[in-house]
Design brief:
The chain has helices at residues 2-31, 37-71, 79-106, 114-120, 123-137. Helices cover 82% and strands 0% of the residues. Bound molecules: protoporphyrin IX containing FE. Protoporphyrin IX containing FE binds next to helix 1, helix 2, helix 3 and helix 5.
Length: 140
């Protein structure tokens, strides 16, 4: 089980690396002047590749967590695990929204400013903080 937990932590950290960096690219995309097509295309290419990578990394991160929970029964019926799963659902919704925002940028229809994306970029920090505190401290 320790191998599963170790790999779970590695893939969770890798998944979140993508969730931390993708909105950063959106901050830069929101700042690109309308006539800088080369810059815009370069950032869109980076975002597409990173989103594909982040999608891939979410699968083992979640799969290994489910294996610990359902396979080994760790946290089954515990309040901290239910709260952690709620944070995971919020993280998945955030990940999905990152995909939708990229499609808005690709269509050239983004109306949000860079300040909005800077605040949006802070959310995964909060999700990770709460999930790690719940699973390590197991407060209830
Ligand atoms: C479907 C999603 C997930 C499930 C079912 C899940 C389940 C689990 C379980 C059962 C453990 C073992 C806890 C223990 O041995 O005490 C664990 C460990 C851990 N999980 Fe998750 N997890 C999920 C997603 C996440 C996410 C999104 C994060 C961070 C943002 C995370 C961070 C951790 C950490 C840091 C540990 C190690 C805790 C320790 O060793 O005390 N997990 N996870």
């Amino acid at each position: 089980m320790l191998w599963v937990k170790a790999l779970h932590i590695v893939f969770v950290a890798s998944w979140f690396a993508g969730l931390f960096y993708l909105p950063r690219i959106y901050v830069n995309l929101a700042l690109v002047p309308a006539d800088s097509h080369a810059e815009r295309e370069r950032l869109l290419l980076m975002a597409r590749k990173l989103l594909r990578f982040t999608n891939l990394l979410a699968v083992p991160a979640l799969g290994l967590g489910l294996w610990l929970w359902l396979g080994y029964g760790v946290g089954r019926g515990s309040g901290w695990m239910h709260a952690k799963l709620a944070v995971v659902l919020l993280t998945l919704a955030y990940h999905h929204q990152c995909g939708r925002l990229l499609r808005v940028f690709e269509r050239g229809e983004n109306l949000r400013g860079h300040i909005w994306f800077r605040w949006f970029n802070e959310l995964p920090v909060l999700f990770m903080l709460v999930a790690v505190v719940l699973v390590v401290l197991k407060p209830w």
